[in-house]
């Protein structure tokens, strides 16, 4: 599978030494390389995006067609590389999981002051993860789990305690230990970070 893939983002090559909002994208591409060793991708800064791509980064080009916005990119990569799940139910749960993790990112700062809101969200995730290792109930992580790494990095940055939610805590430990994720954490040297400091 020889595809021409370029990721356009501020980091780690576009001016910020951080993976940031593109964490899930890089993880999906790194996971795809394990199944399709011929896959390679380039990283470029936002100033190098083709005209007409839009303003939001990250953006990605696959064989010359560009798409922006992290959730849309994750769905496209998931479809391309089999990282959305195998069954219709898994694919639907994966797409919902991408949006759930997008909401976790959007909501996380409110949880610092609003314990009730925090508990409502973690109760939802707890139920969703009941009896499952991964967000979509798949046998391996999907792009939803990879996007969760980005969201939960922000949860941790705000020191939001979710230890009372064992399914969610187990998922977080499992995804951090998953090989491509562990490799990304290990690459955070010489000032590189997962999210902006």
TrEMBL record:
Native source organism of the sequence: Cymbomonas tetramitiformis
Upper lineage: Eukaryota, Viridiplantae, Chlorophyta, Pyramimonadophyceae, Pyramimonadales
Protein known as: GST C-terminal domain-containing protein
Entry GO MF terms: glutathione transferase activity
Pfam families linked: GST_C (PF00043)
Residue ranges constituting the GST C-terminal domain according to the UniProt record: 63-197
InterPro entries found in the cross-reference section: Glutathione-S-Trfase_C-like, Glutathione-S-Trfase_C_sf, GST_C, GST_superfamily
UniProt-listed GO biological process terms: glutathione metabolic process
């Amino acid at each position: 599978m020889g595809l021409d893939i370029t990721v356009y983002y501020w980091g780690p090559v576009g001016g910020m030494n951080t993976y940031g909002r593109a964490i899930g994208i890089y993880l999906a591409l790194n996971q795809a390389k394990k199944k399709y060793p011929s896959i390679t991708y380039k990283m470029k800064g936002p100033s190098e995006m083709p005209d007409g791509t839009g303003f939001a980064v990250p953006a990605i080009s696959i064989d010359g067609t560009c798409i922006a916005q992290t959730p849309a990119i994750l769905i496209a990569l998931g479809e391309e590389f089999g990282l959305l799940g195998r069954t219709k139910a898994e694919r639907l749960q994966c797409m919902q999981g991408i949006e759930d993790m997008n909401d976790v990112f959007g909501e996380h700062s409110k949880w610092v002051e609003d314990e009730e809101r925090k508990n409502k969200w973690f109760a939802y995730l707890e139920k969703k993860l009941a009896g499952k290792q991964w967000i979509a109930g798949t046998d391996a992580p999907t792009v939803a789990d990879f996007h969760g790494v980005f969201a939960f990095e922000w949860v941790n940055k705000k020191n939001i305690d979710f230890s009372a939610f064992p399914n969610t805590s187990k998922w977080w430990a499992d995804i951090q230990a998953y090989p491509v994720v562990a490799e990304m954490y290990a690459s955070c040297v010489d000032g590189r970070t997962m999210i902006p400091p």
